[in-house]
Amino acid sequence: MPENPDLCVDTSVKIKCANRKEASMLLETLTADNINLPPYLGLNMNIHDEVFIIDLQYEKKNIIKENNINTLINTIDEIMEHIALARDVIKND
Amino acid sequence: MKMLSLGIESTAHTFGCSIIKHCRDDRHTSGNEFILSEIRDIYKASAGWGIHPRDASKHHAMVASRILKECLKESKVDIKDIDVISYSAGPGLGPCLRIGAVISRALASYHDKPLVPVNHALGHLELGIKLCNLDNPLTLLVSGGHTMLLVYHKNKWRVFGETLDITLGQLFDQVGRKIGFASPCGNKIEDMANLSNRNVLYSLPYIIKGNDVSFSGLLSSVKKLLEKNSINISDICFSLQETAFAIIVEAVERALAFTENKEFLIVGGVSANKRLSDMLQIACKSHNCSFNSCPLRYCGDNGAQIAWTGAQMYFSDPSFGIKPENAIVDQSWRLDSVFIPWR
C-alpha cells in the first residue's frame, strides 16, 4: 500500500450462509482467483461460524482517470457475482 | 472400472457441461456412447462486434445453473455420484475462465470431489482422437483461439507449426465483423464464399515461414478490398478462403511429408468448414494418409472434451486432482507445456 494515499476505501462484506459448510465452500471457491492482486488492492477472506467475510482495501496515490476507483468496484462486482453463482450451483442438486 | 466425469467448459463464447462415462480400457472403442450428456449455451455478440469478455462471462454466469441442471437430468446422474470434476483452466478469456472455475470449485468443495484443471486445446485433441478412434495422428487445431499443427512425441504434444499472429478463426471473425456479421463468423464467410461464381480470385498475401503461418497481412488486404464498393463480397470471401486454406494445406503437406504420419485429424470450430476439409482430404490422399475430422457436433467448444480429458488425466495419475483453493486459471496456458502420461 502507498504512503499517504490520495484515496483510501475500506469495504467489508459479510454473508450469512445456511451453515458453516456453505461458508467454507465460498472461501475455498474464491481463494484461487484472488491472489496476486495489484499493490493498491488488499483482500482478506475468512469465515466465522456460518458467516463468510470479505475485507477489501483500496489505497491509491496519483488518482487519474485511467486508474480510478473502478478497479475496486469491478473487483467487488466480480466477487459478488462469483458468490451468487457458487451458492446457486450447489443448490442445484 | 467405470467412473463418471463432469466437465465444464467456459473459455470463450460457449458455456457447456458434460458428463461422460470413463472405463479404464475403453480408449480404443469407437462412437460417442460414453458421452451421457452434453449441454451448452453460446454467448452471441451484437452484429459487427466480437466477444466482450465481461459480457460473455455475465452470459455464462446467467446460464450456468440451468445448463448444469439440464446436464445432470439428461445423464440421469446425481452430482453425488460424480467421481471427478474437470474444468477448462486455459487458455481463454480471464472473466469467462473464472466462471467455469468458480462453478467447478464450488461443486468440488461442497461435494468433496477431486478437481482437475484441463488445458482447453488438449481437450479438443483428446476428444477428436477418441471420437475418430485414432492412435497418434498429425493434428490440425483450428479455431478462434488456435491455429496449430501438432504431433505427439514423448509425453507431450509438439507444435509442428502455428500462426505467428492471428488465428484462422480470428481472421474470419474480423473479416465477418467488417462485413457486419456477429462473431463467430466462419460459417457466414463460408456461405458467402459459396455464393461466388468462382471465376474471380483476388491476389492476396500468402505468408508461410517453414511450417508457421501468418494471416495479419491477408486480413489487412481483405479489409481494403471490402472498402471498395465495386467488388462483390462473395468473391472476396471466396478469395479469402482459397488463400487462407491453401496456406494451411501447404503447412499440413510439409508436416505429412516430414513425419510420414498415416493418420491426420482436424479439430476445432473451423474444422466445420467444408471447403477446408475438401482441400485437406486431397492433400491427405496424395500422402497416403487417412483424413479424419472431429464430428460436427463436437468440433466446437463443449464440456465433453473437458470431461473426457480430465478423466484420462485423473485415472492415469490421481495427483492431477487438486484442492479447490489451488485450482487456478491461466489465460495463456500453452498446450505444448502439458505433460501427458496416459498416451
Description of the molecule:
With 93 residues, chain A is α+β, with helices and mostly antiparallel strands. Chain A has helices at 20-31, 70-90, and strands at residues 7-16, 41-48, 51-60. Chain A has a 3-stranded antiparallel β-sheet with strand order 1-3-2. In chain A, helix 1 crosses helix 2. The relative contact order of chain A is 0.26. Chain B has 343 residues and is an alpha/beta fold. In chain B, the strands form 3 sheets. Chain B has a 5-stranded mixed β-sheet, with helices on both faces. In chain B, helix 6 (216-226) packs antiparallel against helix 7 (233-259). The A-B interface holds A 21-22, 24-33, 78, 81-82, 84-90, 92-93 and B 58, 61, 64-65, 68-69, 72, 78-80, 95, 98-99, 101-103, 105-107, 109-110, 323-329.
Main sheet summary of chain B: 5 strands, mixed
Percentage of β-strand residues of chain B: 15-25%
Mean pLDDT, all residues of chain B: 94
The count of β-strands of chain B is 12
Provide the succession of SSEs of chain A. EHEEH
Shape verdict of chain A? elongated
CATH structural fold name of chain A: TATA-Binding Protein
Number of domains of chain A: 1
Element layout with pairings:
The complex is a heterodimer of chains A (93) and B (343).
Chain A: E1 7-16, H1 20-31, E2 41-48, E3 51-60, H2 70-90
Antiparallel strand pairs in A: 1-3, 2-3
Helix pairs in contact in A: 1-2
Chain B: E1 2-9, E2 14-23, E3 35-42, H1 53-75, E4 84-90, H2 94-111, E5 115-119, H3 120-131, E6 138-142, E7 147-153, E8 156-162, H4 168-179, H5 186-194, E9 207-209, E10 212-214, H6 216-226, H7 233-259, E11 263-267, H8 274-286, E12 290-293, H9 296-299, H10 303-316
Parallel strand pairs in B: 1-4, 4-5, 6-11, 11-12
Antiparallel strand pairs in B: 1-2, 2-3, 6-7, 7-8, 9-10
Helix pairs in contact in B: 1-2, 3-10, 4-6, 5-7, 6-7, 7-8
